[in-house]
Every structure is written in structure tokens, then in C-alpha cells.
Amino acid sequence: MKRLLTAIFFAAALAPCARAQTPAAGGGEVVDRMVVVVNGAELITYSDLLWQLALQPGAPLDSPRREDLRRALELLIDQRLVAQEAEKLPHVHATEQETRDAEAALIKRFPSLEEFQRRLERVGLTAAQLREIIHERIDMEKYLDFRFRSFTVVTPQEVEAYYRDVFVPRRRRQTPGAIVPELKDVYEQMQAELIERRVESETDAFLEDARTAAQITFLDESLADGLQRPDAPGAGSGSGSPPSRGARARTRN
Fold first, then answer.
1. Helix or strand or coil: residue 216?
2. In whole angstroms, what is the distance from residue 74 CA to residue 229 CA?
3. Please, are residues 56 and 67 in contact by the beta-carbon 8 Å criterion?
4. Residue 91's CATH number
5. Is residue 168 part of a domain?
6. The model's pTM
């Protein structure tokens, strides 16, 4: 999905911000900057952003670009909002096999297993934490599938109109002079494309509504620049006491 299916260093010259103590990769304690609180319950830290970028092949970790940081934060906020909604409804959870398969697929996106492991070590992301991230990512996808895809239906008339108005012109632009397949030969493909478009549209609308209603508290204003802010009466930025932090969760690729 467009928004759901996306680490990080800022110089000391940036404005001071709230901080929390989290375990270092090699033991001991490191200072972890607190960035955002979502709806008073979900804390996003600088390390969460690093973990997000570490799972993106090619994303710089030593000197990440400002735009990469902002995109990672925006994505993580969206993920927290989806996760909070998912907790309100029963949904199917990821199986052990699905988690293993997803981990293998993720590793294949990197040049090598060694490079993948190097990036995890660079940001202090353990194998157990990675599995938790992947498990929760699948849970989120299952929730969205249940909420949107399960109830999405397209009619034969809609498929025919999509074939005529979208598929045929697109095919003629891409392969001028080639024979355009008949509708009966691409019907299932057209049906699947329509369903994906509708699910994506409904998911985007759901996220827009969730952002509008959310209370997003920015603890690090240097990362808030350029992000879409909710317009809800309770939303905004501040430096109030953040919630206690449980297991680091819902950081997705």
C-alpha cells in the first residue's frame, strides 16, 4: 500500500530535545532522543527512525538526509495510527512461517546477508527485535486486508469500463501497433487492479481521517518541519511528560 508498505542522525547544533535512556547495542546505556508521542500512548524515538532507515536498502545511516528523516517519521506516525486502530478490532495475527518468509524476502532486498546484518548491527537492532518488527508489520497488513480488501467488490461493468478507459489506452501507448488483448483474456488482471486501486484509495482516506483526529505531540521540533500536522483541537506540539515506553514496536519497512 502506498503509504504503509519506509534512520538517522542530527548534529548537536539542532535545538535541545527530550531524551530517554535505552540499551546500547554493545551493552550499557545510550541517550535516545524522544521525537514524537502519538495519541499520548505511542512514543517514537530517534532510534526508531534509525531502525526504519536500516531496513531500507541504500538509505544512509551515518549521515542521513533531512528528507529521509522526515519521511521515516511520517511513515512511523502513520504506522502507529494504524496499529492503534488495529488494537480495537479482532484480526488474524502473523504465523511463525509467515514471519520467517517475510524476513527472508526482506533480506533478499539487500546486496548480501552480510550487508543486511551489518546495517542491523550499526543501529543496534537485534534478531529478536527484527522478528518482532516483521511480526507486527504482517499483523498490520492483515488488519488492513480485513478492514478494506475483504469488503471490496467490483462489478463486471466496472471491470469492462476500466478495460476500455484505462487498460486499452495504456496498452496502446506502451506498445504502439501491438494487438491489445481481449477483455476475457485479462479480466482477472483488470479485476485485481481495480481492487488494489480501491483498497489503496480507502486506506489513504482512512489515514487522512486518523491524522486529523490524532494528537501528535512533537518533542523534537527540528523533525517536525515539513510534516503534515493534524488539525484536530487536541493536536499540536509540546514538551509535556511522554508516556512510559514499553517494547519498541511497529517500526516498519
1. strand
2. 10
3. no
4. 1.10.4030.10
5. no
6. 0.69
